[in-house]
Amino acid sequence: MSTTKMGLTIEEAAECTGIGRNTMRKLVDWGKLPVLKVGRKTIIRRDTLERFMTVNQGRNLLCQDDVRKVE
């Protein structure tokens, strides 16, 4: 089994992408980045995060209308 985690918390996703935690939370709240909820914990799939980064390359992630949603 691989030691690479399939899912990341918001904090881990923010750290590995360089996006701030608050911005990452906004993207989730806006429905632009799908997540799994496990109790109070929010998990972002690694493959979904990579797809999100590719689709939104060159876009302003602080502008809700500029961010493309991924499924």
TrEMBL record:
The lineage of its organism: Bacteria, Bacillati, Bacillota, Clostridia, Eubacteriales. Residues 8-53 form the Helix-turn-helix domain. Pfam families: HTH_17. This is Helix-turn-helix domain-containing protein. InterPro entries: DNA-bd_dom_put_sf, HTH_17, SinI_DNA-bd, Tn1545/Tn916_Xis. One of its GO terms (molecular function) is DNA binding. It comes from Zongyangia hominis.
